[in-house]
What we know:
5-stranded mixed beta sheet
Amino acid sequence: xxxxxxxxxxxxxxxxxxxxxxxxxxxxxxxxxxxxxxxxxxxxxxxxxxxxxxxxxxxxxxxxxxxxxxxxxxxxxxxxxxxxxxxxxxxxxxxxxxxxxxxxxxxxxxxxxxxxxxxxxxxxxxxxxxxxxxxxxxxxxxxxxxxxxxxxxxxxxxxxxxxxxxxxxxxxxxxxxxxxxxxxxxxxxxxxxxxxxxxxxxxxxxxxxxxxxxxxxxxxxxxxxxxxxxxxxxxxxxxxxxxxxxxxxxxxxxxx
Length: 256
């Protein structure tokens, strides 16, 4: 499985897809998380993992070995896709989303057969869904009304479920998670984003933990742990608060 967003929503949120990938992997789901350093935001998924001391695998064999033995691997895009390495400085200088943002979710070199894809541009949702249908991987495509490339806890979201057919759903996220303070899940300060993300994974930032659980939920649905995102959200939140994701993160950092 993978959970990945296009980035480029300019929301400066915590690294929710990476945090959700860690939570899902600690739940027993095999996750090959594909990501990069920030090009248009303040703090990317790879920035978060690098600062924690995680060592990215540099070959497909090493990545597959980590996935097989630990159930989780973070795949750093520039190590596997030459174009991401070549144009990283240009993308950072431009400061706005490019075509690479929208290609990224489809280019995971381990080709996971289950993917949660978040897009900052709602007009691309149907294209991703049709691509998943043609490529033969099951997927949940998400875009929130406030522009986030994930399921926002602050607004409703459109969701497309792809599994031989395409089903549409609209999710009332605020009605599920309750009141969330935006300052607890977003900041233009990269240091604060890092700290908020880590605190959310270990259950010390409740608003952030809810945000992460909301975005872990589609992975639980895709892997058969729940029938609905609402049910999966409550399972994921209980799991975060159990402390298991924190212990799992410590294990993968120690062994990387």
